[in-house]
Amino acid sequence: AGEFYRWEVATAAAATFLGINPFDEPNVQEGKDNTNAILAQYRQENRLPTPASSFTQDGITVTFGSTVTGQMSGVQTLEALRAALVRLGRPGDYIAIMAYIEPSSQHEEVLQRYRARLRDDSHLATTLGFGPRFLHSTGQLHKGGANNGIYVQIVADDQQDVAIPGQPYTFGTLIHAQSLGDYQSLQHHDRRVVRINLGNDIRRGLARLASQ
Predict the structure, then answer these.
(1) Coil, strand or helix: which one is 60?
(2) Cα–Cα distance measured from residue 174 to residue 194, given in angstroms and rounded to the nearest whole number
(3) Are 179 and 197 a contacting pair, CB within 8 Å?
């Protein structure tokens, strides 16, 4: 508890010297606003917007953000995807894997293998976070920090879902809306982002992705 307090004070003190407000997270709020707009659309149309796919293979759909579309030209297979992600990197960059799927130990183990392969091939720093929980920490850095990240957003179709009392949508729909809101924010800030939808079989999709 003492260390939590120490670093909270240190963060506020450092922010004062840097001229930043340590209690303001504008890009976290931006993601929330995007999510709310997407949910409002869902209430009217009973469906979520779907980003246009770049290619589909073995039930996995890949979408390239507008900032990387040109550099990803010709990439139409999962085999070519990992090498293409590595080619996007520049000295001082990092690769962030943002997984909007169940944060189980099995899923994390597979994603860590995939992260390590990207690290070894690119020689860049790599991170792994489960969404939407990372949005209140590294999510602010992703959109509000330096434009030196390559973002791999991983989503999946829900196999089991739970209704939210008093709302016309489920928890699965909410998480999808949060991932789409995050994707829109990254696009708005010209970040290099690739969205991978594993389909309705998360384990199979992860295994297929990590094997490349």
Answers:
(1) strand
(2) 21
(3) no
- In this predicted structure, what is the pLDDT of residue 13? 95
Q: Please give the Cα distance from 169 to 182 (Å, whole number).
A: 19
DSSP 130: E
Q: Which two tokens stand for residue 26?
A: 């504008």
| Distance between CA atoms of residues 121 and 200, nearest Å | 29
- Which DSSP string corresponds to 143-192? HHS-S-EEEEEEE---SS--BPTTSSSBHHHHHHHHHHHHHHHHHHTT-E
pLDDT tens by residue, 29-58: 999 999 999 999 999 999 999 899 999 999
Angle between helices 171-188 and 26-45 (to 10 degrees): 130
Distances (CA, A) of 4 to 1, 7, 18, 140, 159: 5, 6, 21, 20, 38
